[in-house]
Amino acid sequence: TPRRPRVRGLAGKLDALISSAARGVIAPAPGPGVEEPLTPAALLENLPRVARRIALRPAYDERYLEWLFGELRRVRGRGQPVARLVRNERGRPIGWYVYYLRPGWRSEVLQVAAGGERDLGRVLDHLLAHAYAHGSAAVRGRLEPGMPQALAGRRCFFWYRGGTLVHARDPDLLAAIGSDRALITRLEGDAWLDRLVDVTR
Hints:
By secondary structure, this protein is an alpha+beta fold. 38% of the residues lie in helices and 16% in strands. It has helices at residues 3-26, 40-50, 62-74, 117-133, 148-152, 171-177; strands at residues 34-37, 80-87, 93-101, 106-114, 138-140. A 5-stranded mixed β-sheet has the order 1-2-3-4-5, with helices on both faces.
């Protein structure tokens, strides 16, 4: 709508004003460890270690991930795609995050993967710190099983915007989908597509 750009501009200015006054209080700390770019090759290399507890996950290959990362960059209306691998203090990979960064507005999380609850908290710390440091006013994503406890201690809000319908004849498959042992995120759907993108090309 015509009002939306003006509202976003005003929200960005207000956020900048508030952030400059309260930066020391509200700024999220990145936590221990370091980050590096998450490439398709790095994701595939570290997936077995990070997803060792995962019973259900996508069957990624490098060709598909190269295509997917390229498409994420092509959908400019969503923001700037950011994909980062997180390592702990000893250099061991503990997880990664993928999101659309939108400075001055709400950024959209597509995937957070981690090797366990403790590692999940650290990856979330890095995600929130990165988004804040690069001007994001907020970060929004889908609540996955296993995340509530980690998010609750990080000043996050929860609200219901609709559920997910799943059908499978295999009860074990249904149980895995509803557990914290599945890696099924917004990256596996079409949530990142822009309605103006020509997907037939």
